[in-house]
Design goal:
The protein is α/β, with parallel strands linked by helices. Helix content is 29%, strand content 17%. The chain is built from six helices and six strands, in the order αβαββαββαβαα. Strands 1-2-4-6 form a four-stranded parallel sheet, with helices on one face. A two-stranded antiparallel sheet has the order 3-5. Helix 2 links the parallel strand 1 and strand 2. The longest helix has 16 residues. The radius of gyration is 16 Å and the shape is globular.
């Protein structure tokens, strides 16, 4: 949670009107803990889009995604990412999931005017193609992704988010 305080301080310092946070792995947990910091500090920060790649979602962090300051939340994951769900020590129940919806389920349907989507990467029909670093690199990729080389898939994040905001795919 100390890192979430650092993030909060930096966001206050920047005083930005529109904020998009893109995180990877435990950076997603740091961003989610920002909800507790904003509440504690009685801050007036809004994160327009929280985009998390491969976050380890824990019981303690899942419901934070539904709170202020997050307007829209996008979680990208791969079923082939064993690291994302491997942490058994930093969570009280000893379980990590790939998606926030695996914990909060129907609560997502109550988010009026907000977008909340879990997106599984599928490459050549495989939901397990990417490992933990997969979205960040293209080495060893099949021909369908080599055309992106040297750009990682995350370079396409603005396009992904624009398309997801216009569609009904994801949770």
């Amino acid at each position: 949670i100390d890192s979430a305080f650092d993030l909060y301080d930096e966001l206050v310092r920047l005083n930005a009107d529109r904020v998009t946070l893109i995180t990877h792995s435990y950076g997603g947990a740091v961003a989610l803990y920002l909800a507790r910091v904003v509440e504690q500090e009685k801050g007036d920060i809004t994160i327009d889009d929280l985009i998390m790649y491969a976050p380890p979602i824990e019981q303690e962090t899942a419901e934070l995604a539904l709170q202020k300051p997050f307007k829209n939340v996008f979680t990208f994951y791969s079923e082939g990412d064993r690291i994302q769900v491997a942490d058994k020590f930093t969570t009280e129940d000893g379980v990590c999931h790939r998606t926030v919806s695996s914990y909060v389920g129907d609560e997502i349907k109550k988010l009026d005017g907000r977008i909340f989507k879990d997106i599984c990467f599928v490459v050549n029909g495989s939901r397990k193609y990417f490992d933990h670093m997969g979205p960040w690199c293209t080495s060893g990729s099949p021909k369908t992704l080599k055309m992106l080389k040297p750009f990682p898939a995350v370079v396409l994040t603005p396009l992904f988010i624009d398309l997801l905001k216009r569609s009904d795919c994801g949770v």
